[in-house]
Amino acid sequence: MAAHGDPRQARGLAADGGAPPVDRPLPPHAGGRGRPAADEAQRVAGAGAALPDERLKLLFICAHPAIDTAVRTPLLLQTVLGLDAARIASAFLVKPATMGQRLSRAKAKIRDAGIRFELPDAAELRPRLDAVLEAVYAAYGAGWDDAAGADPRRKDLAAEAIELGRLLRRLMPGEPEAQGLLALMLHCEARRNARRSAAGAYIPLSDQDPARWSRPMIQEAEQLLAEAAQGRRPGRFQLEAAIQSVHAQRAVTGATDWEAVALLYEGLVRTAPTIGALVGRAAAVAEAYAPRRGWALLEEIPAEAVERYQPYWAVAAHLLTRLGRPGEAAAAYDRAIGLSQDPAVREYLGRHRAS
Amino acid sequence: MSKSRLPARHQIERTTRFCTWRWTPVHYSLLFYLSPEDFAARADPEKGKTFLGAFLPYMRALRDAGVLVARAGLQPPETATTLRQQGDKRLVQDGPYAETKEQLGGLFVIDVPDLDTALEWAARYPGKIVEVRPNVKPVE
User: Fold this and answer.
1) d(Cα A240, Cα A183) in Å, to the nearest integer?
2) pLDDT digits (tens, 9 = 90+) for A54-68
3) Residue B58 to residue A337, Cβ atoms within 8 A
4) Do A340 and B119 touch (CB under 8 A)?
5) Hey, what's the torsion of the CAs at A216, A219, A221, A226, to 10 degrees?
6) Distance separating alpha carbons of residues B14 and B9, to the nearest angstrom
7) Which residues in A lie closer than 8 A to residue B56 (C-beta atoms)?
8) Quick check: pTM over 0.90?
């Protein structure tokens, strides 16, 4: 169903096709520790953000606790990758003029609050790193939803988020969660072409042809996950990547180990109890054990939390159908269709509602 | 009016009983534009089913989320009559005011807290073009 492995808060986006400024030559001068961050952001962005350690500092500034959570990802896309405000606005479904203002306000805040251009102390690093990873994953989510849709340029934002993930992993080699995030994004990206039929119809993960998954990306993700496991510090992104790894195993075994998926979701719910994790766990438990048990878990989720959360209704429709409750299933299908932003997903759900 | 926000509204009215300031909702209009082909498909008994198959769930989702304030679907532009006052002369014309390829096909008025949320709902609209505008606050 729709909840499996889809980066959450995924949205449509526009792209200008610019390559991420990752491997450009070094600028003539390096930034000193403790300079005002706004000046540095300006300078580093202007120089193509070429010094790896400078980009790392920028990532941490963009995810600073003083910066509003909602603007962190747009800010790092602009300052670290140099994307323009209009493109970011389309990706995050915000009026372009508003996005421009939010970015300016965030930069003014960096300046006025005197946020320093430096890496956080060791004690503060871990929670700040979580915010950085979160922001990078949100960038990937923004590039995911209609990635296989009509606009071929739309690939670019997801690709750039993966580029950021590679950068983070390179700059913080000992961080298992940074490896986990990159593994997660690569697993999702490996399935990009398999998500649509030749005619453009939506294909859910469980119906995808593994032959259409990218083997090199899956291999790279698996290797990253194995490296991360050696750090013996499990976390949200490693768990999410592990769930995708189980799905990827279907390419080899021909079947999905739903019990393993359900177990990993259980761990995820305990580590990071997001609505997405709760819905994913319900779907996995339904597949692994019984639709009735999955439905019971769905019913535990507070109604107001899922009023506008499409994957919940898609999973509910599927489970109610399997439980032989067609009237409620039809209503849930309608809700899922009404909340979908993707025409191909609407068409897919409409077909299942009718059958 | 969203059910979940009702208590907040009452609270505001209670705490501001002695102030002149009053709670006024900001509504947004989702104006959807249709091509001649869209208008034709909507009127066609067979194709109309496909059109409604996508449209009705969207409308129900708006209603069930408690955000739908008003709605209207408009007949095709050729049914329009436009009146214009030029100085002291009145001009009555067949057809819509603006001759664009896509024409206003209908609208939803929704009650949401901000433009971002309005855009989120607009992104779920199952057609091609939708314009989002904040409504002016009601005069009374």
Assistant:
1) 9
2) 888 888 999 998 999
3) yes
4) no
5) -160
6) 9
7) 334
8) no
Asked if B53's CB is within 8 angstroms of A338's CB, the reply is no
Please report where in the chains the tokens 């077909």 appear, as a residue.
A351
pLDDT tens, A183-218?
Answer: 999 999 999 989 999 999 999 999 999 999 999 999
**Residue A301 CB neighbour total at 10 angstroms:** 17
Instruction: Dig out the tokens for A207 from the structure.
Output: 């119906």
What are the beta bridge partners of residue A87?
none
Among residues 61-120 of chain B, which lie with CB inside 8 Å of chain A?
61-62, 64-65, 115-116, 119-120
The pLDDT of A218-234, averaged and rounded, is: 96
Asked if A223 contacts A196 with a C-beta cutoff of 8 angstroms, the reply is no
| Alpha helix segments (H runs only) across chain B | 6-15, 36-43, 45-64, 115-123
d(CA A184, CA A187): 5
- DSSP conformation letters of A229-259: HHTT---HHHHHHHHHHHHHTHHHHSS--HH
Instruction: Check B123 against A12: CB less than 8 A apart.
Output: yes
3-class state of residue A278 by DSSP: helix
C-alpha count within 13 angstroms, C-beta hemisphere, residue A269: 17
Return d(Cα B57, Cα A306) in angstroms, integer: 16
Whole-Å CA distances, A333 to A146, A278, A355 = 20, 19, 12
Does this complex have an ipTM over 0.85? no
Q: What is the dihedral of CA A67, A68, A73, A79, to 10 degrees?
A: -40
Kindly list the distances between the CA atom of residue A137 and the CA atoms of A6, A7, A71, A140, A240, in Å, as whole numbers in the listed order: 11, 8, 14, 5, 12
Count of Cβ atoms closer than 10 Å to residue B56 Cβ: 14
- Burial (0-12, 13-18, 19+ Cβ within 10 Å), B53: middle
